[in-house]
Amino acid sequence: MLNILKKNFLVFFLLIGSLYVLSNEDPYVFIDENAQKMVRVLTEDSSLFETDRVLYENKIKEIFEPMIDFRRVAASVMGKKYYLLATKKERAEFVLIFRDSLLDTYAETLAQWGDSTITTEFPKNKEELSKNVEVKQTLDTGTSKYPISYKLRKSKDGWKIVNIIINGVNLGLTFRNQFQALAVSHNENISDTLRNWVSDAGTAGIT
């Protein structure tokens, strides 16, 4: 009996390990698994939005934060001109500022989608993946359907999101335009620009 239990535990841990590797190596599985986790928060913990909004948004952030390459995205948002103008300290500071503001915006936006479902488009033919991959999803809010496109890049830490396009709205480009406009309004003073930064994608075309 003991040997049987040991074998069962061994099979269990091997299975869990293989699922983790699959998720880490397959960008489509990676996006889909995390999307379904967020859907469960939206549906099963929806009451928290009214009773404990901070906890509710933290549940979403815990899922979403590890998915994004904030260093690369923040650099892209700054654009080449302002990235080169910024000091190393300012670049590092913006990564943190951008991360916090994006997560707050994303969590608040997701909370308004309520009982939504998300489906992922898996490729019919598995081909060798390059370092850059696009994963497409459909968000169904019950009244409308919206396309979502994730741009991912393979790093030493696995697959990471570097841009998101929701219903035709390119968030990376939107944020870059905002940064440039904010920098110009502050006479291209990077320090002042960072102090006044707020990630704002509106409803990202979703109403």
Summarize the structure.
With 207 residues, this protein is α+β, with helices and mostly antiparallel strands. The chain is 57% helix and 17% strand.
Provide structural commentary.
The chain contains 8 helices and 5 strands; from the N terminus they run ααααααβββββαα. By secondary structure, it is an alpha+beta fold. The chain has one domain (2-195): Tgt2/MlaC (Nuclear Transport Factor 2, Chain: A). The chain has a 5-stranded antiparallel β-sheet with strand order 1-2-3-4-5.
- Contiguous uncertain segments of 5+ residues: 1-23, 203-207
Domain module count: 1
Q: At CATH's second level, what is the architecture?
A: Roll
Strand order of the largest sheet: 1-2-3-4-5
Q: What series of H and E elements makes up the topology? A: HHHHHHEEEEEHH
Q: Give the oligomer, counting copies of the same chain as homo and different chains as hetero.
A: single chain
Q: Name the beta content range.
A: 15-25%
Mean pLDDT across residues: 82
CATH superfamily: Tgt2/MlaC
Strand tally is 5
Structural class call reads alpha+beta
Predict the CATH topology: Nuclear Transport Factor 2, Chain: A
